[in-house]
């Protein structure tokens, strides 16, 4: 198998291992997973999931590798992304971005799902300056 056949997706929210949507949408298809960093801005949305917008801050997530290209269609459905619609008509839009390992060495390009800054603000998103989102964060901080 060549690298051209590997589909790489940078995930930063509910698709990360241990989060709500990983088991259903990713677990059966992932051939590799590693901690990774992308540049953007991360927002906590009031719906129980985050949004990443373009930006220059570190966003911490996981780089998932898949061999089945159909996984992108499943993720597109989850993220309410249709490539035939204008960006503003999608909840998220899929784009290839540069991804880095935890020491900021380049790992190449990967797909990710971004939201426009205007949409994140309209949804009441709260900026997460540390670049880390977890649905478990509030549980651990309350103990």
Automatic annotation (TrEMBL):
Enumerate the Gene3D superfamilies for this protein.
Gamma-glutamyl cyclotransferase-like
Q: Which Pfam families match?
A: GGACT (PF06094)
Q: Which SUPFAM superfamilies match?
A: Gamma-glutamyl cyclotransferase-like
Q: Which residues form the Gamma-glutamylcyclotransferase AIG2-like domain?
A: 9-134
Q: Which InterPro entries match?
A: AIG2-like_dom, GGCT-like, GGCT-like_sf
The entry's protein name is AIG2 family protein
The species this protein belongs to is Chroococcidiopsis thermalis (strain PCC 7203)
């Amino acid at each position: 198998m060549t690298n051209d056949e590997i589909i790489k997706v940078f995930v930063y929210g509910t698709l990360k291992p241990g989060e709500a949507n990983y088991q259903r949408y990713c677990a059966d298809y992932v051939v590799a997973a590693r901690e990774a960093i992308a540049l953007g801005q991360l927002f906590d949305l009031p719906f129980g999931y985050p949004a990443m917008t373009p930006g220059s801050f570190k966003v911490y997530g996981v780089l998932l590798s898949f061999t089945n290209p159909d996984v992108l269609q499943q993720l597109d459905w989850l993220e309410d992304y249709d490539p035939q619609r204008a960006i503003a008509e999608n909840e998220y839009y899929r784009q290839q971005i540069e991804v880095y390992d935890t020491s900021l060495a380049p790992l190449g390009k990967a797909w990710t799902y971004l939201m426009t800054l205007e949409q994140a603000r309209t949804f009441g998103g709260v900026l997460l300056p540390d670049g880390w989102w977890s649905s478990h964060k509030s549980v651990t901080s309350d103990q």
